Amino acid sequence: MAKSEKTTDHNAIKSWVNEHDGVPMKVKDTDKGNSALLRIGFPDNKNSDSENLEEISWDKFFKVFDDNKLALLYQPEDNDKLFTKLVNRDS
Q1: What CA–CA distance (Å, rounded) separates 43 from 2?
Q2: Which SS3 state, helix, strand or coil, does residue 14 take?
Q3: Dihedral sign (CA 59, 53, 67, 21)
Q4: How many structural domains compose the chain?
Q5: Tens of pLDDT along 36-74?
């Protein structure tokens, strides 16, 4: 099993996601103030193709990411499984 890592580094997140052809996304109609339900979308992931998701800019993604004190949990060494999860920074 690949080791998971947690990061809040914007450059590391953007670089890893771009490297895997991913895009920043949010669940439609979840905007509330400076909050929204964020996702990372990947082209071969059937969940990324949902009509309930929309691509957003990295600026918007990181604004919500930072305002909600999130971190990205991912597996940097496993290119077969593009596992990502947004988690609380303090947990």
Answers
A1: 21
A2: helix
A3: negative
A4: 1
A5: 889 998 887 655 557 788 999 999 999 999 999 999 999
